[in-house]
Amino acid sequence: MSLWQLELKKAFRSPVVYVLISLFLFLNFSLLYKHAGIRDELKVTNELVDKFGYQIDEKMFAKLRVYYLAKLEKMNELTNKKIGKTYKRANDFFAPSEYKNRENFNKAEFHVMMETAMIENYYESISNIDDFYRKLDLSKNALSDIRGYGLKGAAAEHTRHYYRKLGERLDELVQNGEHKTLFFFGMIYRMHALLFKDLMRSMIFQTMVLVVLITAHIVTYEFQNRTHLTAYSSKRGRRLMVDKLAASLVAALCVSTTIVGPSLSVYFLLFDYSGLWHVPVSSFFNREFSFPYISWWKLPFAAYLGLIVVVFIICQLFFAMVAYVISMWCKNNYVAYALFAIGFGVAVFVPGIMPKSSLALFWTIYTPFSLVLNPHLWFMGWNVFFPKNYVPMTIIVWIVLLTAAMAITLLKFKKEPIH
Questions:
Q1: pLDDT value of position 235
Q2: What residue spans of 12-151 are helical by DSSP H?
Q3: Would you put residue 331 in left (φ > 0), alpha (ψ -120 to 50) or beta?
Q4: Among 14, 240, 292, 374, which is most exposed with the fewest C-beta within 10 angstroms?
Q5: Is the pLDDT of residue 363 over 80?
Q6: pLDDT score at 229
């Protein structure tokens, strides 16, 4: 067994790691369980995709209209039989004034009402898609950002330029028909936020905690146990730090897989995406606010999910490298935990104190610490702080910075006295 494997084995010998993994997975499963009640309603979307495909055009809309009217007629036959009443719209059945009438229907019959109402939501919303995108005025968004963040001078001009670029992407998106696709109704169920904000962000911080704990433990083990004089006294002993780096990076990969794998598996077992893997994430129906999600590139859901997971893992490797460098300098795992937490806070805090007229306000967001705060907006054009190059540039810059930091740290350790 090689030295780096022995170091890795040492890291996973602590019961604390397994306790934390179990706790984090329990929290993730609990989060998903709280939303499990909507899974039957989400099946309606997949049924529509199976019947009509996910691309919306005039032919599909005409077929959907016939299907919806047939469903509404069937629903009215049921309500007329049960309560002697019919409805012009299925959603009228769910009005507060109809609460007592709903008590007359069993679970299967109530499902018919719910399904018809969901189909009605899609039918009515499709009619408004073109008008919605025609009314989008990104110059208003630019003005809102400038006023909201108090931007001036070069920063304000940068914001206007940003929205001009986003406007070009919006025109391309509309021309490609990326927005005219069926997806889970974001305004109702907020599935994008559930997966990429609530669950993914939780997993990011959970894995980060484990990665920092494990890395600091690996690097400082000999110093904490006062065996460093023996371990590092030889020439090969100094190179042990390279093995510790390899073990730390492999540990980060292992922990990421352990947290992400089961959590995403449970998520996709609960919520059926079988007909939606190829739907662009810029779908009109994926929007959860008055402003839609606009991806900087045409990204099907499957590709977007894959990219998010890749960036997730890269960020954990960055955190392992940061913790490695800190631990090499302080040689105390508890101090390393504290310094990492302080560094994280400072990195997130710094953009907020930058001059509102300076472009430094935007440069300071290119850190993995700021990046992980909003995984649901990776590769999205949302506001001026989410440019097209945000994710790739952050990764490139920090690969260079951390590689340099580790090289300097290893050279320093190779020459410094160990007593």
A1: 62
A2: 15-34, 39-52, 58-83, 99-102, 107-126, 129-134, 138-149
A3: left
A4: 14
A5: yes
A6: 45
Please give the Cα distance from 274 to 290 (Å, whole number). 27
Q: How big, in percent rounded to 5, are the helix, strand and coil portions of the chain?
A: 75, 0, 25
- Map residue 130 onto helix, strand or coil: helix
The predicted pLDDT at position 391 comes to: 97
Mean pLDDT of 151-157: 94
Mean pLDDT of 125-131: 94
Give just the sign of the alpha carbon dihedral 319, 321, 326, 327. Answer: positive
Q: Quote the tokens at residue 418.
A: 């160990």
The answer to whether residues 357 and 154 touch, using CB atoms and an 8 Å cutoff, is yes
Residue 209's closest CA among 320, 131, 312, 99?
320
Q: How far apart are CA 310 and CA 321, in angstroms?
A: 17
Tokens 């931007």 belong to residue: 151
- For residue 293 the two structure tokens come to 């999600």
The token pair that represents 152 in the structure block: 């001036």
120: Cβ contacts below 8 Å, ≥ 6 apart: 68, 72, 89, 90, 91
The per-residue pLDDT of the chain, averaged, comes to 91
Tell me how far apart the alpha carbons of residues 220 and 224 are, in angstroms, rounded to a whole number: 6
Mapping DSSP to helix (H, G, I), strand (E, B) and coil, where does residue 234 land?
A: coil
Nearest to 99 by CA among 88, 112, 83: 83
The 10s digit of each residue's pLDDT in 84-126 is 888 999 999 888 888 787 788 888 888 888 999 999 999 999 9
One-letter amino acid of 240: L
Decide: 48 and 65 in contact? Cβ < 8 Å: no
Instruction: Please identify which residue in the block is written with the tokens 């009438």.
Output: 101
- What value does the mean pLDDT take over residues 360-380? 95
**Which pLDDT band holds residue 373 (cuts at 50, 70, 90)?**
very high
State both tokens at 65.
């209209």
Distance, CA of 322 to CA of 340 (rounded, Å): 8
pTM of the model: 0.92
